[in-house]
Give the backbone structure.
Amino acid sequence: MSNHKLRTIFLYQEYFQDFYLKQKQKVKDKILWTFRLIETIEHVPEDYLKHLSGTDGLYEIRVQQGSDIYRIFCFFDEGKLVVLANGFQKKSQKTPKSEIDKAIKIKSEYEKEK
C-alpha cells in the first residue's frame, strides 16, 4: 500500500470523535487501518466503503472487528475529502433510520457552513 494519499479524511465537528473515543483499542486500531486504506487505495472495495442507496451522496465506512460491526457515515467534498459524520455499532441487518437521518443532518449542516 503506498502512502500517497488520494483522499483526505476530515473530521467534522465532534460527531465522529464522540463515537471513536468510546471504542476499545482494538476497534480504534481497525478504524484507523480502514481510514488509511480509504485514503490510499484508488478503488476502495464495497466491503469498506459503500454508498447508501436512497441517499444523496451518503456513504458508510464499514469496520469489522471480530464479530462486531461498526458503521461510520461520511460524504465527499469535491471528490477528495471524506468528511466523517456519526458512527455506531451495528446490531441488526438494517442500518437504523435514525442514524441515517442524523448523518443527513450533519451533511447539510456542513454544506451550509461552507
